[in-house]
Amino acid sequence: MNGPLLKVDNLTKHYPLGSGFFKKSIPVIRAVEDVSFTVEAGETLCIVGESGCGKSTVARLLMRLVEPTAGRVLIEGTDIASLKKHTLHAWRRRMQMVFQDPYSSLNPRLTAGQIITEPVENFEHLNRKQRQALAADLLRKVGMSPEMMHRLPSELSGGQRQRLGIARALSLNPSLIIADEAVSALDVSVQAQVLNLLLDLQQQMGIAFVFISHDLGVVEQIAHRVAVMYLGRIVELAPSEALFAKPVHPYTEALIAAAPVPDPTRIRLEAAVEGEVPSPINPPSGCAFHPRCPLAVERCRIEVPPLVPMVDGRVVACHVRAPATGMPGQVYAVANLATPISAITGR
Q1: Same domain, 278 and 197
Q2: Which residues pair with 39 in a beta bridge?
Q3: Which residues on adjacent β-strands are paired with residue 98?
Q4: Residues 334/271/241/8 CA torsion (nearest 10 deg)
Q5: What total of structural domains would you count in the chain?
Q6: Average pLDDT value for the chain
Q7: What are phi and psi of 207, to 5 degrees?
Q8: How far is residue 2 from each of residues 7, 160, 203, measured CA to CA in Å?
Q9: Which region among 4-8, 71-75, 76-80, 256-260 has the lowest average model confidence (pLDDT)?
């Protein structure tokens, strides 16, 4: 396969608020705005941000559970956002989803074995022996006993249910799995087990993951690259180690500084920002973060900053720390950053 497994170009989703024959213009919720990224085979891209930033909407757009307002979603070079329903059905095998809630995402009337094999039977007929063999094999892969295939979801623990959800996603042998807050509803000890399972499966099967999370500790553990979203837009996309070692966008810096650190001897960045996230119905002009950013200048209030490449492989949308020059191919050294937020806020 040439090129990335997944390529997202200028993906946008607006939700209209009501409708009316006499209304000249209808207000919209700008849930996702001009989002672009790629995912290679066997890679984990994590999308992070505050609640309401649009990351879960991106997940649903990638699966085409909701229709995009604009943009393209290319899987292995094919734009699934433009496919008709009967053609899209065949592409469902290549991408699957693991949902946040292991309680509501499983049919309570089906046994574990039926839940696992149901997706496959949407594409091909399986006899009883084939269904049992497939269910047993996938239960073993996710660290569960094949004997559990006869149990209902109500007879399983939260961790077992999430493993069952992963087994269901694996049943079609997908190239890409979208995991939307897949461990946030689990206890910390169970989270670690499920995360280790996902990493093992990735090594064994070469699956790519788009992992949606607000937990930076989880993200730091599993991500190859991280996309940071704010009010529907990506503001920074970087290799995981580079992002956590030296965040560039002021919002990324503040987000990492706000994350709890279990080591009391570790020095933390203090880059707290004030104010609330603006409404996606009426977002600020220019950079959406400028009302809360202590580094903001006049240009930030007028122009939406483009994603500008840096020498360490990241892209950043910030007029102050990565100002666009209009010169094609211009990249910036991460070492030449503006004054840290902590020096301005005095924290």
Answers
A1: no
A2: 6
A3: 179
A4: -80
A5: 2
A6: 87
A7: -75, 140
A8: 12, 37, 21
A9: 256-260
pLDDT in tens, 96-111: 999 888 788 899 999 9
Amino acid at 282: N
Q: Is-contact 118 105, C-beta < 8 A?
A: no
Among the candidates 174, 191, 223, a domain finishes at 223
Both 181 and 310 in one domain: the answer is no
pTM for this entry? 0.89
pLDDT higher than 60, residue 335: no
Residues with Cβ within 8 Å of 84's Cβ and at least 6 positions away in sequence, in order, are: none
Distance (Å, rounded) from C-alpha 264 to C-alpha 261? 7
Q: Do 82 and 153 share a domain, yes or no? A: yes
Domain that holds residue 194: 6-223
First to last CA, the chain: 49
d(CA 265, CA 144): 39
In what helix (H) or strand (E) does residue 230 lie, and over which residues does it extend? strand 225-230
State whether 100 and 164 are in the same domain.
yes
